[in-house]
């Protein structure tokens, strides 16, 4: 047997992730922490990732990320398929083709699959648990959003609490461990006007068969979401093992390498530009890898940035599938009129940007990875959520973590540049700004503690490794235990 194969046989865990950057990177970082405790780790995802990595680096496709082997399976569609526009169809085909393709990958790469300690999946590819069952391997889930979302979906899809309906769309939702939530605070998928029919189906199936997952790990930390984590202990506990962000953001050894994939090439020139700006002066603006803002909202942000006359760094990622209505594009006047004020890049080295001393605050779509990276950088946020978990993440920022303000939409769903300007001033100067900055710094310190030896997240990783390797308890399928 070849040496690599031999290695795969012992103490091996296979992670499986949906193809989005924000899903793969936390999985890889979990992998890194398992590897630090002697586990061999591989990550399987769909072919599109190999294709994007190849395009972004220009070099041959990477087959390893700092010791984690990357494996790819087909989602059943061609590489240029527009999955974002046809999300329902895409998720349906992935759910049908994924299991057999992943199963074939396992057969091909592992001479005795049964020896795998466990498969770790994420909530967007829940069918991985069936593949695990086929080989009699235990399965864990890494919940990649706040634990609050885990609690909301669990209660919603098991019908344990009342949620808005077509006849009562404006009801206030009250859940243990969480503040009261209005409809704009709830994840878009639980609202009666959610356009993605496949999502409730996927999640109601998932949450009704949680027993398929022997462990639920979370990309969060106990001290950040204490009440809601405690509220799940009696139902189906979640063990936070985060924040799963680059080690440099956690004050960890600078030598430690990050485990992540880059699907887009980042423009490093913005770091040089940041270095020329005064401390705590720059507004960083990004909406992540998936959101494409309508032209009107691009215009409102552009106008606000120009009017506040502060330095800015704005990531404008060209839409993968451009539309004639100008969605996701800068207004034509913007670059010329702000050329001495700020920088626009197509993709930034975000974690380096957030931890740069010149950066003062972050206007964000509230993707959970971006939020964790900001928490670990100790700066305040301006929340401008769009869909999925983002509205709830914005609620957490404002009312639970108290590290930011939210851009409120007008009645017609649009935003005005004046509202954005007001939010910027609020987080930049005055007593509110000062308090937000203090809270943000306190959370940053907390985040560093939990991942250090003996911290709550480090302990949860240690326990998980003990359990999968059978060091402390038998592999008897027993329910996962609380923290
Ligand atoms: O829900 C989905 C679906 C989906 C799944 C099933 C279905 O039937 C319909 C749609 C596909 O891609 C996503 C990608 C996401 O990326 C990003 O993932 C981060 C971590 O989950 C989040 O925090 C960010 O808000 C988010 O943009 C977040 C999501 O919630 C989804
Ligand atoms: O210009 C950018 C914008 C985003 N990111 C990274 O992309 C991820 C985005 O994940 P998130 O969950 O915030 O949002 P998504 O893109 O999945 O909607 C984060 O790790 C960011 O650091 C980046 O490197 N450069």
From TrEMBL:
Annotated EC: 2.4.1.-
Reaction(s) this enzyme catalyzes, per UniProt: (E)-cinnamate + UDP-alpha-D-glucose = 1-O-(trans-cinnamoyl)-beta-D-glucose + UDP; apigenin + UDP-alpha-D-glucose = apigenin 7-O-beta-D-glucoside + UDP + H(+); luteolin + UDP-alpha-D-glucose = luteolin 7-O-beta-D-glucoside + UDP + H(+); 4-hydroxybenzoate + UDP-alpha-D-glucose = 4-(beta-D-glucosyloxy)benzoate + UDP + H(+)
Cell location: Cytoplasm
Keywords: Cytoplasm, Glycosyltransferase, Transferase
Signal peptide: none
GO CC annotations on file: cytoplasm
PROSITE patterns: UDPGT
Biological process according to GO: 3,4-dihydroxybenzoate metabolic process; cinnamic acid ester metabolic process; ferulate metabolic process
Gene Ontology molecular-function annotations: 4-hydroxybenzoate 4-O-beta-D-glucosyltransferase activity; cinnamate beta-D-glucosyltransferase activity; flavone 7-O-beta-glucosyltransferase activity; gallate 1-beta-glucosyltransferase activity; isoflavone 7-O-glucosyltransferase activity; sinapate 1-glucosyltransferase activity
UniProt similarity note: Belongs to the UDP-glycosyltransferase family.
Name under which the protein is recorded: Glycosyltransferase
């Amino acid at each position: 047997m070849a040496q690599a194969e031999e290695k795969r046989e012992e103490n091996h865990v296979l992670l499986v992730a949906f193809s989005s950057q924000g899903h793969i990177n936390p999985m890889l970082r979990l992998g890194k922490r398992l590897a630090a405790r002697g586990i061999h780790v591989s990550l399987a995802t769909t072919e599109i990732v190999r294709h994007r990595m190849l395009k972004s680096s220009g070099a041959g496709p990477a087959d390893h990320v700092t010791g984690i082997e990357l494996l790819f399976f087909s989602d059943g569609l061609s590489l240029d398929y527009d999955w974002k526009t046809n999300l329902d169809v895409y998720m349906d085909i992935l759910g049908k083709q994924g299991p057999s393709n992943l199963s074939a990958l396992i057969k091909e790469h592992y001479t005795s699959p049964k020896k795998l300690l466990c498969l770790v999946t994420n909530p967007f590819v829940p069918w991985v648990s069936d593949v695990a069952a086929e080989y009699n391997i235990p399965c864990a889930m890494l919940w990649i959003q706040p634990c609050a979302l885990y609690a909301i979906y669990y209660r919603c899809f098991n019908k344990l609490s009342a949620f808005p309906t077509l006849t009562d769309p404006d009801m206030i939702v009250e859940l243990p461990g969480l503040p009261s939530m209005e409809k704009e605070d709830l994840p878009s998928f639980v609202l009666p006007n959610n356009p993605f029919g496949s999502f409730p189906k996927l999640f109601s199936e998932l949450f009704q068969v949680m027993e398929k997952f022997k462990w639920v790990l979370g990309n969060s930390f106990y001290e950040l979401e204490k009440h809601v984590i405690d509220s799940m202990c009696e139902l189906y506990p979640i063990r936070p093992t985060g924040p799963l962000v680059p080690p440099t953001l956690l004050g960890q050894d600078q030598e430690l390498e990050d485990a992540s994939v880059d699907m887009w090439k980042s423009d490093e020139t913005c770091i040089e530009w940041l270095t020329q700006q005064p401390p705590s002066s720059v507004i960083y603006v990004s909406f992540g890898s998936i959101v494409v803002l309508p032209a009107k909202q691009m215009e409102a942000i552009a106008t606000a940035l120009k009017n506040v006359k502060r330095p800015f760094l704005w990531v404008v990622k060209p839409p993968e599938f451009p539309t004639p209505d100008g969605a996701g594009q800068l207004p034509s006047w913007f670059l010329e009129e702000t050329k001495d004020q700020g920088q626009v890049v197509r993709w930034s080295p975000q974690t380096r940007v957030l931890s740069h001393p010149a950066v003062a605050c972050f206007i964000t779509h509230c993707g959970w990875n971006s939020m964790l990276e900001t928490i670990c950088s100790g700066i305040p946020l301006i929340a401008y959520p769009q869909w999925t978990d983002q509205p709830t993440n914005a609620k957490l920022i404002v009312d639970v973590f108290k590290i930011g303000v939210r851009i409120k939409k007008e009645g017609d769903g649009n935003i005005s540049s004046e509202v954005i300007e007001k939010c910027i001033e609020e987080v930049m100067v005055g007593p509110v700004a000062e308090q937000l900055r203090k809270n943000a710094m306190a959370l940053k310190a907390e985040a560093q503690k939990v991942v250090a030896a003996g911290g709550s997240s480090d302990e949860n990783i240690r326990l998980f490794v003990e359990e999968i390797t059978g060091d402390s308890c038998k592999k008897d399928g027993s329910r996962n235990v609380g923290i």
